[in-house]
Amino acid sequence: xxxxxxxxxxxxxxxxxxxxxxxxxxxxxxxxxxxxxxxxxxxxxxxxxxxxxxxxxxxxxxxxxxxxxxxxxxxxxxxxxxxxxxxxxxxxxxxxxxxxxxxxxxxxxxxxxxxxxxxxxxxxxxxxxxxxxxxxxxxxxxxxxxxxxxxxxxxxxxxxxxxxxxxxxxxxxxxxxxxxxxxxxxxxxxxxxxxxxxxxxxxxxxxxxxxxxxxxxxxxxxxxxxxxxxxxxxxxxxxxxxxxxxxxxxxxxxxxxxxxxxxxxxxxxxxxxxxxxxxxxxxxxxxxxxxxxxxxxxxxxxxxxxxxxxxxxxxxxxxxxxxxxxxxxxxxxxxxxxxxxxxxxxxxxxxxxxxxxxxxxxxxxxxxxxxxxxxxxxxxxxxxxxxxxxxxxxxxxxxxxxxxxxxxxxxxxxxxxxxxxxxxxxxxxxxxxxxxxxxxxxxxxxxxxxxxxxxxxxxxxxxxxxxxxxxxxxxxxxxxxxxxxxxxxxxxxxxxxxxxxxxxxxxxxxxxxxxxxxxxxxxxxxxxxxxxxxxxxxxxxxxxxxxxxxxxxxxxxxxxxxxxxxxxxxxxxxxxxxxxxxxxxxxxxxxxxxxxxxxxxxxxxxxxxxxxxxxxxxxxxxxxxxxxxxxxxxxxxxxxxxxxxxxxxxxxxxxxxxxxxxxxxxxxxxxxxxxxxxxxxxxxxxxxxxxxxxxxxxxxxxxxxxxxxxxxxxxxxxxxxxxxxxxxxxxxxxxxxxxxxxxxxxxxxxxxxxxxxxxxxxxxxxxxxxxxxxxxxxxxxxxxxxxxxxxxxxxxxxxxxxxxxxxxxxxxxxxxxxxxxxxxxxxxxxxxxxxxxxxxxxxxxxxxxxxxxxxxxxxxxxxxxxxxxxxxxxxxx
Length: 877
Hints:
Protein name: beta-galactosidase
Keywords: Glycoprotein, Glycosidase, Hydrolase, Signal
Distance between the termini: 35 Å
Helix content: 10-25%
Family: Belongs to the glycosyl hydrolase 35 family.
InterPro entries: Betagal_dom2, Betagal_dom2_sf, BetaGal_dom3, BetaGal_dom3_sf, BetaGal_jelly_roll_dom, Galactose-bd-like_sf, GH, Gly_Hdrlase_35_cat
Organism: Streptomyces justiciae
Structural class: mainly beta
């Protein structure tokens, strides 16, 4: 992945690489210790140790117990991974790939199904998440909103808030009463995990971004009153530059969670780990930068100097300096469409630096590497550690790039080439080492003497090889591991280093560590090893990998049609009367008509049904149904059980992709044979998708969803309406799981359903042609071996000319919506824990078709997204 200017800014933020902050960035006097904190070792990885810790900041970095911390947080959304045991998997991967913190967003709508009702158990157990973060050695940046954005329904506001008085994100007392209640519940949990009290690792608390200064002041006071004493990050403040997070794990926008603008359930754009917890193209630059910030203290205190001009002006070169150590950093960007190779004489780099199109390099000069000084390098320094009897520096970059590293040596050193690729020459106090990156995987050069009594080991790696290098801090000293696809944990005991982690293929194992380490175990099994020429433990045999995991074919399907609500004799007596005259919605209530907005009657998520009793309707010629939905909403109508037709909102284009509320009027002609009737039953199904967010603080989340008004042509009938949405909030899966389809209300999506004779056996593909909903169910068993982490998805394929969409239910969990004729296509990730990887599973598909084409499903199959030997212990949800 090229590290473009935009990507680099996203990954590093401004101050993560020390870009000097201007304005009011100052020290928090009560907790920072000395006013001037020099460059030095970072604090040890955080633990819930019971000790009091001080947390502050200046314009360079955070300060923990008087030590500089270059905060490098990866963002993940708790609500996008509804499998608590997988939280540990993701957090361990974050720490291994260089992150030292996790930014966790906590969504109000995920925890609150109704006013005054809050649930922090099961998949919503925030306390467990914070404990797990501490166990994995990660700081926490907490983001509880109240408004999040985060591309979720209503920006994180609960559905019930759309039907309440008070303007959101202001000091309106009605809104504040609700928001304060939410914060009280979240803060009570957060206060038990504050780094300052030694009870956890919550290091920062981020307030929402809002334009109302008085509202932000209220949030500040509320959070402090609730006992939160860590620094508060306020948008546009100096502190908020200090922890601009990279999206580390995207996750799944399952159920009715996604914002209306999201086209897929996958939330992987720019994420280092994909929806299936697998590496993405973004991981390599994240890994390199994270390890650099974690192991080189100079990067926590950088000032910006005058930018440099490159020869020909083809590269942008930003110049940064650490005034304590006089080390220099150059952020070199190529925003052109062609690769550039040029020396940077004003940076003291006299040999060509290769920067590919759209790429960025972070280069260092005059940087202390233990007892030696790096004069310059044309490859990026990835990490520097002191392990046992030597120092180790790793330089990395794109495959095939020629790296040159120049080290100052007042005397001629003893340089030993331990692999075939590197070459070196000593001339006039400088040792010049060159190496093509990645050609022989990891390349090694050992430098001894030459003015320092401590050996320096230079390692050269391309992106792929760099992803197999794992630095780790232990109480006894630093450890560096090379080989496995993931190292989760490193423990030293007596003369043995105990490693846990994952492998995907046959791989070697090499470990550098403190003196006295003579043995190594991998996932609790001894590994035969020898001492190498670089003082590492080198495994005598490769570690085993993990081959493909066989998956069963999906067959044995059973089918059942629904939507009895469209029939005129359907009993709707238990439905809610649409009799309200006023609404708190931003959508006006049509004069002379009742409120039809679904939220006003307590139906906030998924589909909603309407049934209208129409009288005095003789000579009725047409019906016009105005409705309001999120992106790609639709409406279906029946009159006296006869389909009138389907209306769909248009597929967004580039100009309307961020539009959150869509409105339209669907007009249907009444069939001639029905026009003589004086009474009718008008049935309407609205798939309203999601609520708009409130990014502009204009209550846009309160825009109506569902029918908004109804008009007739040819007659002036009277109408009385009833409506029905989701029948109940699932106590395990939460309010965002269920909608208002008949099958959902009857439990057809649940694994414990007893399929009676009403379900007919069928084979796929299907070629039904009807307007409405048809359900398909099957079961399957998996037998993934213990100790294997298999990420599995569900793939649906069909001719895009067939118009239908599918709600996917795995073991009762709504995993998202597939739109066959609109795309985009991708496997739907089935998170382990919800998916029983060793046991029985039920799969239900609710197919909604408009009757204009034959409707599926056609090809439905399980897909292996990745597998490794290792993983974490998974608990069934």
